[in-house]
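Can't paste images in this forum, so I'm doing it all in text. The chain is below; anyone willing to post the predicted structure tokens underneath?
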Amino acid sequence: MKSKINKIWGVGLVLVLAVSLLLSAAPVSAGTLSWGSETIPSDTGNVVVLAADITDMAVGADGVTIWAVDDTNNKLYKSSDAGKTWSDKTSTWTADTTFTSPILIAIAPDDPDIVAIVSGTIEVSVSTNGGTSFGALGTVVEGSLGPCTGINDVAVSQEDSGTNYIAVAGIEAGPLANIWYFNVGAAAPAWKETNSLGGFRSATSDRAVAVEFSPNFASDMVMTTVTEEDAVGVYFEIFSMNQKLWNNSAGFGSGYAKALVTSAAITNATASISLSPDYLGSDDALRVAFVGLDLTGLDTSDGIYRLKDTSLKEMMLSIDVYSIAYDGTNVVAGQAGGGNSVYYCSDPLVSSPTVSTASSLKCPGGYSSTVTNVIVAWNGADVVAGAIGDQSAFAVSDNNGKSFNDISLIDTAMTNISDVALSADGEALYLAVDDAQDFSLFRMKDGDWQRVLGVDAVADCIVRIAPEDSDVVYVADQLTKVMYYSSSGGDEKWFSRACKYDIQDMAVESAGVIYVAVKDEKTVSKSTNSGFTWKTAKSTSLAGTLAIAMIRSLDEDELMVGSKDGYISYSTDGNDSWTKISKVIETGGLLVQADASGLDDGDFIYAASSKADTLVVSWEIGESSSWTDLAAPTSSGYKAYGIQYVDGILYVLTSDGTDSAAMRTLGPNDSTVTWCSLATTAADDVSVETQPQSLKVTSGSTKLWTSAKYDTAGTPVEKLYSYTDTLATEGPGLSGPGDGAAIEVNRVSGAAFDISFSWERPSKAIKYQLQVAVDDGFNEKVLTQVVPSTTTTTSGTIAQIVGPGAASPYTLSFMPGTTYYWHVRAYPDGAKPYSPWSATRSFSVAELPEAAAPVIIEQPPAPVIAVPPTPEIIIQSPDIIIPTPEIILPAPEVNLPPAPAQVEAIPGWALYVIIIIGAVLMVALIVLILRTRRPV
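Text version of the structure:
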């Protein structure tokens, strides 16, 4: 019975331990362990739109609603996230009108759902539900002297008693300037003209070129305009919607209409108005306005003007101004005509304001000779802008117009991702892209892509960042001398640089120290002032006959170069001298890719070449006399275009021109190097960018990056791939048995109980290698098995029973009184790589118990049975007397049967014999039981 209890307890203990492990082990986050496409700027959300031209724009007061007109593509866009993405609203508008250029748009300052649009056919439509639908207001009615022949501007007022006014500035046949307005929400809405009302310069003005309602329209009912008269001048005028009168006739003073420019040379004008947020028509001290002008025939008077009531200040002249905006503190203005400059002023109300120009490489649309007509507006604390021309875009400035980043509606084709650069922590990511004509550098910021540099007539650029400061970024137009440098991550300013030599490749040692490998040479030049000046190029002493293919900076003063014909040299004194490795990696090898653990004696250099059928080799500095083949798996036609050594891990990226593959080893210096594949179907079907270095890795998370160049059909692709190697730096987390666990021995069988080994499943790995040994160095292994060998699992915890009762091949007899050690790692399985070994744990098997002494039961003596003499048995027969009844009647005849024979009594001695036999049988049974009982 005790034996059965022990067995039940042992089985129960195993079950309890297994269940407790399953309950206590928390599932780990599982990585994909595959190459995946990263999000890049694309036509999703209309971030990239070919040939996009933003001809007009309207910004809502809610900080998120923005409308834009793309006149070239006949598109109307709306953004509900401050311009990051856009939805196409063309169909909801064109259902009520036609798309005829030019298109003008305006939004109510107090209700972002109210939008007015003017078509070139002089049709106006309005939406009061945020663009879900539009209603046509019809063609602008004729003026008193003739029909409307053109509209130059549109504006929407604040709501006043349930009415929002829409005003258009244009030309009445004559030509005469006129302003028409429509009272949306009124009981009887209709178009009304204003040039027939008192005080307007209708008799002489040729055109109204701008219109703007007061920001406090609900209080002052004021509207402003700019009118122009050929050969005479440009004027600023004020209208009272309450009095239906203009200028002095409405009580604004004899200074109105106010002349901004007077000249006989004027033949035409465009203008933009921005009123101070506290503008109040009823208070001359608060009548502050800014006007931007672009005059035909009088370029010297183009510029920015300030009006404090009728006091005029020419803030900056001889600049073509397309638009202007004032937020109460800062003024910004966008260029018209032949450029995309933005002008900004932080002291616009002082007597002598200072107007500056945004960085030439940081204007909307970047540095492009074709971008022009910049529209600017304030959106909260940011300045937003749009423009037209090749490489134009919707742009945002967070520093009051000093610099802009393009974030959407970017007119570019991302047909060639030429390079990618990222910081060691992966926080900063740069993407170099071109469309074979113009270059764009995008930076990931706060989860969104922004174009931080755009340059026309530049392609095939490479990008590098400083290892200690990812905001220090260099861009080089490969095979030319053209370079660009920024110390602000490209956000605020770029400096143009001219290298002394044509650039093959570039390496950044620190914020100010950079090196370039000279095109078609074996020489390297150094700059210590961020590329402003360059030292004379020095020879790298490369063996072979061909020039440098790549250069890498490992640390301060530590450099290495790989040639185009299979050789490597390195420098440990910052390009002063070089040590060549005279042994070729492989004969005919091209475009060497190289990295190293360091450049001191005992460090290793790792290299591969772009010769078909990849060869990966190593060289121990101070020890090697020939390259050591690391026995990397090879595939026919695959060449190495990237190699990275990170924290003891070696990665190699290869391609055959149509497909790509990556591999890695955790022990490049082991006596037997184990490789595994990192390939997946996503990255298999493209060819990676080939030179000069196509593989980048972030340390810590060990995230790999590469860009695609062509698909299997040879078509250019727009892909950025990444692979997070979560199995590279840490093995599985062990769950049970606990370290130092004591394993009991079965007292009946003398064998240790089975053990449930369990661990957390990392990164969707499906195979594991379990090792058990009698030493912590695992030199004397007693078990090495793959778990599971043929099945997959999705559980967060893996468990495997090992022991004398386990199924093969996990059967193992643990020796009593022995300490064992165990660990586990993820095991290679197709594209699922292996991991480092887990931590090592031990367990001890108990000693065999001492044999119990046998239990001896002495046999009792046979009982003595004495049979007493048989007693004399006397049976006294009773006398039977039958009384004679008294018979009164004659007695009937009675016949009695004869008496039965007398039964003989049982002799007394027989009863004693029966009792004695029963007693003997009972004693015999007891003896039998005692003799057959097992000793304990």
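The radius of gyration is 48 Å. Helices lie at 2-24, 90-94, 217-220, 681-684, 908-932.
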